[in-house]
Amino acid sequence: MDSIFERMLLAGLGLLDLTKEKAEEIVEELVKKGEIAKEKQPESIKRLLEKTQKGRLEIEKIVENATTKVIKKLDILTKSDIERLIKKIEELEKRLKK
Q1: How many CB atoms lie within 10 A of CB 10?
Q2: What would the DSSP string read from start to end of the chain?
Q3: Is the pLDDT assigned to residue 1 strictly greater than 60?
Q4: Could you give the CA distance from residue 64 to residue 48 in angstroms, rounded to a whole number?
Q5: N or C end of the chain: smaller count of CB under 10 Å?
Q6: What is the pLDDT of residue 14?
Q7: pLDDT in tens, 61-71
Q8: How far is CA 58 from CA 7, 55, 61, 65, in A?
Q9: CA 49 to chain centre
Q10: How far apart are CA 64 and CA 71, in angstroms?
């Protein structure tokens, strides 16, 4: 799950590279605006990072499922399909050599 398309999707949603530092900046800005109490800052940072991780995992799952459906609809061979065919060819070659 690391294609350019997937990375662009996650980046566009702001879920790819939210670092602790960026989360701290976001929460600090909310503290300055009075939307979060200063004493709630560490908890808010932790919750923001947890929600971001959860969202990232959900989106990755959605993208993975969608990608799998597209591959099946387009009838494209997957890596495991190719590996299975290679193994079958090798088995047939061994039989021919006997």
Answers
A1: 18
A2: ---HHHHHHHHHTT-S---HHHHHHHHHHHHHTTSS-GGGHHHHHHHHHHHHHHHHHHHHHHHHHHHHHHHHHHTPPPHHHHHHHHHHHHHHHHHHH-
A3: no
A4: 24
A5: C
A6: 60
A7: 888 888 888 88
A8: 14, 5, 5, 11
A9: 15
A10: 11
Amino acid at 20: K
Q: Can you tell me the distance from the alpha carbon of 4 to that of 2, in angstroms, rounded to the nearest whole number? A: 7
Q: pLDDT of 18-58, one tens digit each? A: 788 888 888 898 899 998 899 999 998 898 888 888 877 88
Amino acid at 85: L
Residue at 73: amino acid letter: K
> What are the distances in angstroms from CA 52 to CA 3, 49, 67?
20, 5, 22
- Both tokens of 66, joined, read 């969608």
What's the pTM value of the predicted model, to 2 decimals? 0.53
